[in-house]
Design brief:
Blueprint lengths: L3 H8 L7 H20 L7 H25 L7 H30 L5 H37 L2 H13 L3 H11 L5 H14 L2 H15 L2 H9 L5
């Protein structure tokens, strides 16, 4: 699974265009599976379904970003691109099915809701299983390919172009998902770069609307110690 190219790119600390967002998605997927498994679908799941819809929307936008920016630069590797496009097509089918399952649950009668809830839980679990495999493929196969084709500066520019398409609301949602999934050193590196390059008001919004509510007290205190929480 771990090719020499992957190990070389990792050891060389090449620009990791997939790592942070995929860590965030893995954490968010895991949290959502737990909530879906614990839910009481008869007496109250409105907020859960609202949060699930928002999570699926983030997942769909992530596919869009990869296709528009990353897949577009892989024309020289058609075999890799074919696999990626097939995987994304399957993901989009899964996402459509999950949104339909949410709608069925919302209109179900009380006696039908436990069954509909279990079906939603299992369908989401199947989607997550596929996405975990897909993200591992991107990180172990596609990322080393990108590292071979582009410099770190070019990969960083590619990522900045993706970030530039985000609305302020989307950026906060992504940061709320990503920040708690990172190691303390990764989080400090990400926020340090953001603090140095982003407008002060944009950085303050990330801290107050994403970092503060999403991080543990200890993790946020570490940001304060590093002068990254203001």
């Amino acid at each position: 699974m771990f090719s020499k190219d992957f190990q070389t790119s990792t050891a060389s600390r090449r620009w990791d265009i997939y790592g942070p967002v995929h860590k965030g998605l893995r954490l968010a997927h895991s949290q959502m599976i737990i909530r879906l498994g614990q839910a009481d679908y008869v007496h109250g799941s409105d907020q859960l379904l609202c949060d699930l819809r928002a999570h699926l929307a983030i997942a769909a936008k992530h596919l869009d970003h990869e296709e528009v920016f990353i897949h577009a630069v892989l024309a020289s590797a058609p075999a890799y691109l074919l696999v990626l496009n097939e995987q994304h097509e399957q993901h989009r089918s899964r996402l459509a099915g999950l949104n339909a399952a949410i709608e069925r649950l919302e209109v179900a009668t009380p006696d039908q809701r436990p069954m509909q809830g279990r079906m939603l839980y299992l369908a989401f679990s199947a989607y997550v299983a596929e996405d975990l495999e897909h993200m591992a493929h991107e990180e172990t196969e596609i990322w080393p390919l990108l590292c071979a084709l582009f410099t770190d500066e070019q990969l960083a520019d590619l990522e900045m172009r993706i970030i530039a398409t985000l609305t302020p609301e989307d950026n906060i949602a992504m940061m709320r998902m990503i920040l708690p999934a990172l190691s303390s050193s990764e989080r400090a590196g990400l926020l340090g770069g953001m603090k140095a390059g982003a407008p002060p008001e944009a950085y303050a919004a990330v801290i107050e609307q994403a970092a503060r509510p999403a991080l543990s007290d200890d993790a946020f205190a570490e940001l304060q110690r590093l002068d990254l929480a203001a």
